[in-house]
Amino acid sequence: MSLVEMKVPTIGESITEVTLSQWLKKDGDFVKVDEPICEFESDKATLEFPAEASGKLIYVAKEGDDLAIGALVARIDTSVTSGVTPEPVVPVIKPVDEIHKPTETQNYATGHPSPAAGKILREGNIESTAVAGTGKDGRITKEDAQKAVQNKVEVLTAPSLVAPVVRNIVAGEREVRVEKMSRMRKTIAARLVSAKNNTAMLTTFNEVDLTAINELRKKYQDRFVAKHGIKLGYMSLFAKACAKVLMEMPDVNAMIDGNDIVYHDYVDISIAISTPTGLVVPPIQNVESIGFHDIELKIKDLAEKARTGKLTLEEMKGGTFTITNGGTFGSLLSTPIINEPQSAILGMHAIKDRPIALDGQVVIRPMMYLALSYDHRIIDGSTSVTFLVKVKELLEDPMTLMMDI
C-alpha cells in the first residue's frame, strides 16, 4: 500500500487556520489527481482542495473540524488504480398510469441538506422544506442552497416584496438553538472589536440633495445602458466623488502602520457587500482613473461572486477607503465602523423626500444623510468635515464631477 498524505496548504499570509466545511467525495471513493475532494472555509473565502494523486480516498479529518496550516486532512491510497465498477442498473418498466405517481417510500436523503447546504440555509434563515433538492435521491446540495438564498435576496430587493418563508413557532415555545459560529463571522467580530478598541473613531454627518443626480440619471440612463450594458447607479457616482476628494486630501486616504503613516497615490475603494455568511468588503482598484461603467460592472461582478461564495483571496486584499450603503436595507442614519487598517469609511443611507429651506422657500427634495467615520489619530476634525462637504458639493453639482473641475 502506497499512501499520499493530504495536508492543509498555505493559503495566505494572514491565514493560519481553516475549517473543513464539506467533503466533496465520500470516504473510500476513488479520486483522480486535481479532482476537488473537500472545501475549506477560511477567514475570507471558501476554497476547494484538490487531490494530489489518484487513488482511494481515506478520511482523517471530519466536517466542521478546525485545521491548522499543515494539518493532515486525508490520505490517498495510490495502489488502488480504478474506481469500483457499479452494478448494472436493471430498468423497471411501469404502467403508463403509474409513471407520474410519487413513490410511497422515499430515501432518507430526500429533502435533507448536505452539511454545507444546511449551514447556508440556516444563515440565510431559509427552511429546508422550502427548497427542492437536485442531488442524489433528492438531497439538497450546496448549489441548491445558494440558489435559494440568491432568490430570497432578489425577492427582498424587488419593488414588490413577497412574504419570506418563516419558521412555524408554536405560541409559548421556548426553544434554544446553539450553532457553531462560522469562521467568517468570528473574523468579522474580531475585526470590529479591534477597530473599536484600537482606533480613536469619531463620526461626522452631513446631508446631500440628490435632485441633480436623479435628473442626470433619468436623462442619460437609456444611452448609458445602450452603450455599456449596465445601469448608472448611485454607488459609482458616490465612489467617483470620494475618489476625487481623496486624491485632494491624502490624509483621509492614508493609514497608520506602527509609528509611520502610509500615504497612497491611488484610490482603492472597498465596497461593503452583505452575503448570507456575513459582510465582505472587496476593493475596486484605481477608482480615480476608471470610468463610471467600469465601477458599476466591477461592483456587479464582486457582488455576484460574494453572494455565491466565489470571491478569491486576491479579490479581498487591499483597499484604502470604504463605502457602505445601509440605505438598501432602509437605514436612515448610522455610524459605520472603520475597516482596519483604513482610516475612514463613508456611510450612505436611505433617500427620503424631505422639506428643506432653499432660497427662502420650503421645497421637497430627495435627501440622504451621509456619515463619515474616521480615525482621529490621523484625520483632524476639520479635515473630516471638509472632506464630507467637498463630496456633498460634487454630488449636488455632478457636472463638475463629470468634467473633473
Tell me what the structure shows.
By secondary structure, the chain is an alpha+beta fold. Strands 9, 12, 15, 16, 17, 18 and 19 form a seven-stranded mixed beta sheet that branches. A four-stranded antiparallel beta sheet has the order 1-8-6-3, with no helix packed on it. The chain has helices at residues 115-123, 142-157, 183-198, 211-228, 234-248, 292-307, 313-316, 381-396, 398-402, and strands spanning 3-7, 17-23, 30-31, 36-41, 46-50, 55-59, 66-68, 72-77, 201-209, 255-257, 260-262, 269-271, 273-275, 278-280, 283-284, 321-325, 344-348, 352-358, 361-375. It folds into three domains: 3-77, OB fold (Dihydrolipoamide Acetyltransferase, E2P); 111-157, Irregular (Dihydrolipoamide Transferase); 202-402, Chloramphenicol Acetyltransferase (2-Layer Sandwich), CATH 3.30.559.10. Helix content is 28%, strand content 24%. The model is unreliable at 85-90, 96-105 and 154-165 (pLDDT under 50). The protein is elongated and about 85 Å long.
| SSE pattern | EEEEEEEEHHHEHHEEEEEEHHEEEEHH
Q: What's the Cα radius of gyration?
A: 26 Å
CATH topology of the largest domain: Chloramphenicol Acetyltransferase
**Amount of helix:** 25-40%
CATH class of the largest domain: Alpha Beta
Strand portion, in percent? 15-25%
Can you tell me the overall shape?
elongated
The CATH homologous superfamily of the largest domain is called Chloramphenicol acetyltransferase-like domain
CATH architecture of the largest domain: 2-Layer Sandwich
Low-pLDDT segments: 85-90, 96-105, 154-165
The total domain count is 3
